[in-house]
Amino acid sequence: MQTDFLVIGSGIAGLTYALKTAKQFPDKKITVITKTQADETNTKYAQGGIAGVWDEAKDSYDKHIEDTLIAGDGLCNEHIVEIVVKEGPERIKEIIAYGAEFDKDDKGAYSLGKEGGHSENRILHHKDVTGKEMERALLNELKNIKNIELLNHCFVVDIITQHHLGFLVTKSTLDITCYGVYVLNLHTNHIEKILAKIILLATGGCGQAYRTTTNPRIATGDGIAMVYRAKGKIENMEFIQFHPTALYEPGISPSFLITEAVRGDGGILRNKNNEAFMERYDARKDLAPRDIVARAIDNEMKRTGTEHVYLDCRHMDKEKFIHHFPNIYEKCLSIGIDVMQQMIPVAPAAHYSCGGIKTDEWGRTSIKNLYACGECASTGLHGANRLASNSLLEAMVFGHRCYLDSSEQINTLSFENRIPDWNVTGTSEPREMILITQSQKELQQIMSDYVGIVRTDVRLERAMKRLDLLFSETEALYRSTKVSPQLCELRNLITVGYLIVKGAEFRKESRGLHYNTDHLQKSEILQNIIL
Question: pTM, whole model, 2 decimals?
Answer without folding.
Answer: 0.93
